């Protein structure tokens, strides 16, 4: 069994647990505490099974260069700027993604520019979230996503939707930070 096939089920459990956490925070804002406790319990069970699956395996992490991961910030703030100018979220994101692709074509001779379009597009997904978010929120979400982009080269290789998943996790973590700061 290839390493990618062995890593897929635990990653699926991790993503499911993060989505349960996200749904739990939504319910916490709008519902009673019984439903929140249920989602917290489901989150903990899925997360525990995820770590149990990883406990007997050794992984070698390959890291992207930080110069590539830093382009996540560019993608998120470019999309954020276009949205502040009144552009639709999908049009702004696709324009920034197109710019990233053209950037790769313009600097085709440099091998370091091969991964930059994916980092830019990953950052563009961050700014597709709620339009009322401020630049500080986008900065925090970009920092989390950039870190995930930096670390996830060998772990999420070959998994479809990894750019959107990393942006989703970064936004969820930024919401957790924002909620914690607001309610302290």
Task: Explain what you see.
By secondary structure, this protein is mostly helical. The protein has 2 domains: 52 residues; 117 residues, no CATH class. Helices cover 73% and strands 0% of the residues. The protein contains 8 helices and no strands. α4 crosses α6 and α7 packs across α8.
Radius of gyration: 18 Å
Structural class assignment: mainly alpha
State the total count of DSSP E strands: 0
Major β-sheet annotation: none
How would you spell out the order of helices and strands?
HHHHHHHH
First-to-last CA distance:
48 Å
Shape, please?
A: globular
Report the total helices: 8
Mean pLDDT: 76
Q: Which tags fit this structure?
A:
2 domains; 184 residues; 73% helix; 8 helices; mainly alpha
Structure, briefly:
This protein has 184 residues and is mostly helical.
